[in-house]
Write the structure tokens for this entry.
Amino acid sequence: MELTPERLVAQLGREPLRPAYLIAGAEPLRVLEAADAVRAQARADGCTEREVFEADDRGFDWDGVAASFQAMGLFSRLRLIDLRLPTGKPGKDGSEVITTFCAAPPADTILLVTAGEWSKSHAGKWSEAIARIGTLAIAWPVKPHEWLDWVERRLNARGLKAERDAIDHLAQRTEGNLLAAAQEIDKLALLVEPGEVLNAARMDALVADAARFDVFRLIDAALAGQPSQVARMLATLRAEGLAVPALLGMVVMELQRLASLSRVQARGGNVVAEFKAQRVWDSKQAVYRRALGRHATAHWDALLAEVGHVDRASKGRAPGDPWILLERVLLAVAEPRAFKLIAARA
């Protein structure tokens, strides 16, 4: 059975937990909330044993997962196996382990698989096996024409009512950023009086301008591969009078992080451990992996070197407009074809 994450959450509690769940997609908020709902329902049904497995690309011990499937619960009648696939691909060994579990799932075990990436190429016998005995929930990106309705549903789910103009204001301010919208709606739930219907003026008074283009969202847009967003955000920041040096600290930190992750990945090291060492949250790992897939390690090093030139230009010690130079760097992060501008200058 395939559902949206929201539909999955809505049906939990109305029926017994299924033996297996696969929740995947590039929208971390939707994946996380649906997975949290499954975990919460398992606890409500008496599950006190939970094992977490982080399946890295290379060298992961699938035998340990298989052994856990076969083990009896020691302290509760229900166990939850929380299996996380950052790339959404378990490989041959993992596929066999999951398929074998689904062929005869133990009565006392629930399998929850979450993945940060998903497309038709990720599906296979293992995901089909999960769908046969359980539920497949895919968090496809919310399309621009769906954004207004998503915001309205989120408001309604928090018990909030708003006029259409007010919903439109909130949608415009959060600019398709699910996490920003969710945070603003949670704040509204604390501030709005019961029964109040928000109009546009009241919404503007209560909601911070979450679409203000700060450096954090600028970096997020570059990592997510959104060059048009990057260009628009930089233009807005420049118009607001922000100085380039105020942005460079975060840009350098993220490029250093990506270069380090890329080196580990290139030599076949433990990328999951490096994510932890670099303090990258689970919900952010999928977007980092997509960014890593755009460039070789040498490119990340070249981008770091180019930021040094941007810094010197911003201080009058090197030629060039620092805003244009910074735009080139961030566009190259977002779009591999833009890297040739960096390579040409080098």
Notes: The beta strands are 2-3, 20-25, 47-54, 78-85, 109-115, 135-139, 161-162, 197-198. The first strand starts at residue 2 and ends at 3. The mean pLDDT is 87. The chain is about 55% helix and 10% strand.
